[in-house]
Design goal:
Structural class: alpha+beta
Strand content: 25-35%
Order of helices and strands: HEEEEHEHEEEHEHHEE
Number of strands: 11
Largest sheet: 5 strands, antiparallel
Distance between the termini: 187 Å
Number of helices: 6
Number of domains: 3
Strand order of the largest sheet: 5-8-7-6-9
Length: about 290
Amino acid sequence: MDRQKKFLIFGGAWLSALLLTWFLYANTVAPKAEKEAPIVVAARDMPLGTLLQASDLKLVRYPVRGLPTGAITEVKAATGRVLLYPANTNEPVLAQKLSAATSAEGLSSTIEPGYRAVSVQVSDTGMLAMIQPNSRVDVLFTRPGSITEASTSTILQDVKVLSNGRPQGTGTAADARLPRSPVVTLVLRPEEAEKLELARNQGKISLSLRNPLDTQQTAAGAPITDDALDPTLADRIAKARAPKTNPADRKAWEALARKDMPKEPEKPRAVVDVYRGDKHVQEIFR
């Protein structure tokens, strides 16, 4: 009986020693498997102002315990935004270092070299709901005036829309000068921007939405005038402006005009040449 107890005590001591050794090894020597999460990092060195594309970014596993503040976990969340600071290869892309795609910094960086952004005030809110960023529109110009002077023509075709919406105020007194109607910002070449600015100061500007797959531009034609709406309008206006006279008065004027006209002399019936010596005389018989 004493021998059995000794074996149990000895076995318990060995088991305790093994458990203690394993515990010490697991907490001091063996590497710990930390929990990780994917974050977006730069796939290459990029300068300030770079418009991020999917090819510029990649996902890597990063320890959750050491995740930097503002880390982005999806590539699409950073695509289309602009770097506000330079980024090195494999550097985490942080939200505070990016510009929102709809902010001033982000929009200005999306303008292609050689183009300009020009805003147009839109009064048709129904059309504004359909015009979204990257839509394609035509610009129509309507010249005001009388019914015979007014005209409409298409001055720009297949123009890209950069943004739309109401201008954002800053809460200052200068906000009172901002247009109350929504505006649409268009991307134009410099000469097109000048043309649009002139048209905006000469008359009314409106936009027509077009299919983004339809890139065909039609030849510029003559402006559309009132003839397109009412082909008989010009004749009716001319007739209305013609002086109205009484038929009897018209006949009296015609008779008076005939009376005042000089009468033609009667043609002679015969002309006879008479020679008396060196004198020559013509005798006229009527």
